[in-house]
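Researcher: Structure for this, please.
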Amino acid sequence: MDKKRRRTEKQVDFYDNPSDSQLDEGSNDSSDSEFSENSMDSDYEVVSETEDNNDVSEASTLSTGDNLWTEIPQNPELFIFQENVCFKLDTTNLTVQTLVDLFFSEEFLALLVEQTNLYAKQEIANLKKIKKSNRASQWIDVTVSEMKVFIALLLQMGPCTFPSIEHYWSRNKLYNVMFWRSHMSRNRFQLLLRYFHLVDNSVPSSDRLYKVRPILNHFNDIMSQNYVPNKNICIDESMLLWRGRLYFRQYIKNKKHKYGIKLSELCESDGIVMKIRIYSGKSEKTDNNLGHTTDIVLHLAEDYLDKGYTLHMDNFYNSVTLTKLLTTRKTYVCGTLRKNRKENPQDVINRELKKVEVTWQRNGLVTVCKWKDKREVLTISNMHVVEMVEVSNRNGKLSTKPNMIRDYNKGMSGIDRSDQMLAYYTCLRKTIRWPKKVALHIIEIYIHNAHKIFQKITAS
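Model: Predicted structure, token format:
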């Protein structure tokens, strides 16, 4: 029994990788990425500097295998940001409807209509006998205009939350809202919700995500083709609640939704989601031999390398090897680091610090820094010369932190902000079919993106 318990705990630790912006135990996913005495996890270490940079001798340089770590400071390379941050379509008479229609294009709606009708026919054909009272016997092929109304009604269930779908059509005084009844009958809505589909089930596929692949690719293509993000971007995980049986379901104890489907997302620091990758299990293939987390980073950031972007990541992704690789691709890196990663400077890892003390070492342009406040925190960067700076928290209280921590906190809040906004008006409900929930979640993410982009454009 003890062996089994130890083995289970080891497996949980592997996946238990909350972003450092969510280290406050029991906190909501929407909390800001702020390092404080209440938001630090004992497994995370940060670095800061106490020694005079000018008082360095040959003894301060040491060799760890093939890695040469030194305490001699060096100014980082200047990677010029080459992109023009913009929305690529004409914004002269831009409306929210224009942005929404960009996602719900004629081709995409035609796909939804075609596959929904096909899936309904396949399911009805599999029924041995359909009673006249069964809703399936009333099935009529959905049209594009009806699909638009269905999606609109579904999204409107977010701001107007009732206990169940039936309550939206209820004539009870407490729930009597004409909006839904005036656009679609309850039976028709539930039929469309039952058969809402994206792919042909009769076509075999080895891809575990094939049922959501069309909408996932559609979202990524729309964002990459039409919007150029600002210089500060970040990569982090988001959890979509799912407690049903699923091979690649994840458990992350510090998330609000501890069980669910893990989405790795590339975001702007203000919350616009640029690209999504869904974790589909340990057996998912990688495009290189550098490991799973490195593959996720390179996949999500492939369109933004060699352009001078600043990429913020937590310690689930960061390593010395990855930072060196991204440095060759003219991309800045700033984030936290796990103390057991390969190639870490052991002098920094093993050095005991007093409160507010800092220590660091550099290997080429890669700097690893450890700082102690209430706990030790490790950070890694290829864009900083370590120095202590004054930082004010949300209450206006001043404190002193390394500049790497300050910049990490500023740049890492994108996914938290996105999750926070989506949680307010989500239309997601309990279902026995995970592809449907993922598809609706991606639609909600795009609607939030459209809102943020419209705000940006109209404010400028």
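Researcher: Any notable elements?
Model: Residues 434-459 form the longest helix (26 residues). The two ends are 62 Å apart (CA to CA).
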